[in-house]
Write a structure and sequence with these properties.
The chain contains 13 helices and 22 strands. The chain is of the alpha+beta class and about 400 residues long. The strands form 5 sheets. Strands 1, 2, 7, 8, 9, 10, 11 and 21 form an 8-stranded mixed β-sheet that branches. It starts with a strand and ends with a helix.
Length: about 400
Amino acid sequence: MKQQHYDVVILGAGAAGLMCAATAGYRGHSVLVLDRANKPGKKILMSGGGRCNFTNLNTTPAHFTSANPHFCKSALNRYSPWHFLELVERHGVEHVEKAPGQLFCAGSSKDILQVLLTECEWAGAEVRLNTEVTHLNGVAVDGEGAAPGLAERVAEGFRLRTEAGPEILARRLVVATGGLSIPTLGAGPFGYRLAARFGLPVRPTRPGLVPFTLQPADKRWLAELAGVSAEVVAEAGGRRFAEPLLITHRGLSGPAMLQVSSFWTPGEPVTVDWLPALADPAADLRAARAAQPGAGVEKWLRGFMSQRLAGILTEHFDWGGPLQHHGNERLAEIAAVLKGWRFKPSGTEGYRTAEVTLGGLDTDAVSSKTFEARAVPGLHFIGEVLDVTGELGGFNFQWAWASAHAAGQAL
């Protein structure tokens, strides 16, 4: 069959891929987006509980993790949250600010996906679904390690073969296939394997923004509290986050745990401050003892957390009895536990529920301005496939928009 020719072929019809397609299309390029899924933007649709936290107005490079923390600066500076917000408002999408800087759709995540699809349509970019790329320049993509001769044959363009249809010839190829998070939505290692076939370095990957699982001893006493949440300060890997914690039947989740999971090292403890509103709970306990000596620790705790959580903490740590029976040393011990409870996770829930993938294509192999692979002219990588991971709160979507726009402008 006759070849189909395009200026740009983009692999992945997610946030970054669609954004890049529209940007490149508006620059006059013929653009084709390929995705093996049956629907575009699946991760957009499920994000934010179906409301899509599409950006964060407070985005800075400090909100991202990478082996090269400077890599993200250029793209983020050139395409800010205010640029994407202007696009959203131009399409009439209503939005709400749930927490400082965190913008969600007032209606449904479908609104953001429709913005991107409409932009692609207006820009003349074609989106082709249910299409899996099997070969690139005559070499199978699904293989281990670098493929000899693959990079050297790029001069003629990128020849893509799919499971059906004519061979596709692209002047430039953009990889926007995402990471390994939530495989039920179609996530997979395609982008990493493709990079490796070109001999590009890929840093080790692991789940990020993911709930913790617990050791049996902790799981036993916390299981009674499944569904209970609390405002805490959590710390791991030298990073602290003041966010809600949620106890589940599998372990600990909620924004606090998701945030620190990206900085946690297996085998290391996570610290939880159950009373972030109190700087000196020992002094507060002494004052409570003086005011109501017959009252117990549990009653005092109810002033700061749910009744169920106060009761289980008191029972598990054996804090029963009236305050008047607890000396100053004992109250100091209780305060120390409440301000710095430490637990060692047994692990995480893994990619099944992780919101992002840490690691990925080494950014040293890619231009921070054009997102083109330094060793492979015409090959670009954008979005989550790169070793750039944002914190919870809309930062990862902003990275998708910014990296895609930068690449689209450079094509």
